[in-house]
Structure formats: C-alpha cells, structure tokens
C-alpha cells in the first residue's frame, strides 16, 4: 500500500500475535498475509469502536447495479437460479443467487422419516451429534444430512466424480473429498458402488497389485521439497506438440507438479523449465530421487545440480519399487491423463494446470490430508 497504517481490534490478544512464539496454522497464514503490509495492530475497546462494529455486521446480499442488454446472458443467469429485480435505468438492478441444491436437500429432509426422528431427538436434547441450523437444516456436525433420495445423492456423487477437473477419482479419494460436507448412513458404500459402475474408470484405470518381494520405502524427509521425478510418455500429441508429462513430487507433502513437455526436448529446454517452474517457486531442492533416465545421468544435468548444490540419488534401473512414491503417483497420473484425453482430446495440456490443482487439493491417503493442507495449511 506504500504507507504505514494501523489495525484496530477489540480482541486484545490479537495485538500481541506478531510476537507470539507458538502459532497455529490459521495464525501463521494471517501473519504471512500481514507481512506484505507496513502495519501495526492496536487494541481498541469494543464499546468505543461502535462504527467499525456496525460496519462489520452489515449484511450485503446484492449487487449495487449491473447493466446487461445481452439476452443470452440473462437466459444463462436464469438457468443458474438467479433472481432479478428491475430498477431505474438498469436492466438488472439487484441479483441474488440461491443455493438450489441446499434448498432441495432441506425440503427433502422434511419428508424423510429417519431425519425427522433425528430432528425430534435434537430438539428434546437426546442427541448431541446432530444440530439444527437457524433455517431448519439438520446437520451432523458441519456436514449436511442427506435424505434417502436417490436422485439427490446421485447428483452429488456425479458432480464429485464427473466434474471436468475431478478427473474420475477413486472411491477412497472421492469419499474423503465429500465427507467434510455431506453425511448419510451408507455414504462410503454408495460412493464405492458409484465408482465401480463408472465405465470410463473401468476402461482406463490399471490394476495396482502389490509386487512380490519386500519393499524398501525411502525414509520420510525432514523438510519440504526433497523431490522425486519421472516422465509419462506416449501421450497423444497436442496442438502445442506436447506428448509427455514431467512429474515432480515433493516427498514430504506429496505436492505434485505436472509439466507438459515434448519427449525429445533438449537438456537445455528441460533445465530452463526446471528452474522456471520448480526453483523459482520452491527454491533449490536439496535432494532429488529419479531413475536412470539418460537425460538425468548426463554430464550436463549432473553439472547443473552440482552448481545448484543439489544431491542426486538414482534409483535402480528397471526396478520401480526403489522409488515407489513417484511411480505410484505416475500410475495415478496416467489414470487421470487417460480420462483427461477422453474428456479433452488434443488439448489436454491446456487443462493440465487445473488437473494439477485438483490433484493437490484432494485427499491423499498416505498423509491423511490434501497435499495443499500439508504445504499451505488449508485446502482451496
């Protein structure tokens, strides 16, 4: 903002948060945000801060105004359950979007005998697991209770599985992504059955059987961005001539970068991409594990990492178990890419950034959370 300013709060302890020794993840995010500004936090009693208190509680549920003469836009907005009111010289003066799915769920709850019994128990104080919101919606903690209506449950599962950037998640990932928001007694079983019936999943997903012999997983790194990497090749050539993906995985948080490349890209091109997409964002990785691909074992690549101060660790040739995490991620990416190719055809590389985002923002069983939660402290 270019100048110093003060933040006044009626929460006295917030004044000392910049010097607080122990911070939780939420506090760390706020401190990281405030570091971009030249500001100080001062305490101001609530009874002396009436104006700010009133502003913070003012509800704003409409747009001041929007001029729109395109009939196609209006038709599209109406299809999204947008409600209009006309005023003055504006064709569209106010707009309010109603959460139609939530309304349908709430209406169906009123007709579900099981959920009605739960509501009665909550009102009688006999069940503290469930709560009733101000609008009458029954919740299991923070999860919306789904009535026994097959169409509604299928609609939710269809959106979680077939949305363009969901890319057909497996049953465990899909269940863990839905679980924070919805609840019904047979949810896990229904999700598993839904995924089993998906024709695309059956066509593109490989079997992942446990290999014979003992596995020797790599030790858990002590810091972020000790990485593994490999290539997925043989993909359909796109309009930009990409036919491969460079997979780079942070071994600690499982955060992944999917970089579209050409299988015959030169070492100079790969080195430039590595610096611009990995070093620029995360600093210089202190350790890298990869297989004995000629591109990695070349004198040039070794010299580059020597100059950067990075240790290189080669996995055993033709033995993917040595670097199982990266290989499993690649298997998973191949499943996603097959579905992506079916969905997006020759421009799959245009959608790769959002596929990367969806992958990093969804549950990962090996760490018990989404990679973004491990890396940034929250999902998006």
UniProtKB/TrEMBL annotation:
What organism, scientifically named, is this protein from? Sesamum latifolium
Carries keyword Nucleotidyltransferase?
yes
Q: Which residues cross the membrane?
A: none
Q: Which UniProt keywords apply?
A: Endonuclease, Hydrolase, Nuclease, Nucleotidyltransferase, RNA-directed DNA polymerase, Transferase
The record ties this protein, via PROSITE patterns, to: INTEGRASE (PS50994)
- Protein name according to UniProt: Transposon Ty3-I Gag-Pol polyprotein
Citing just one GO molecular function, the answer is: RNA-directed DNA polymerase activity
Q: Which GO terms describe its biological process?
A: DNA integration
Q: Which InterPro entries match?
A: DNA/RNA_pol_sf, Integrase_cat-core, Integrase_H2C2, Retrovirus_Pol_polyprotein, RNaseH-like_sf, RNaseH_sf, RT_RNaseH
Q: Which domain of life is it from?
A: Eukaryota
Q: Which residues form the Integrase catalytic domain?
A: 217-379
Q: Does the keyword Phosphoprotein apply?
A: no
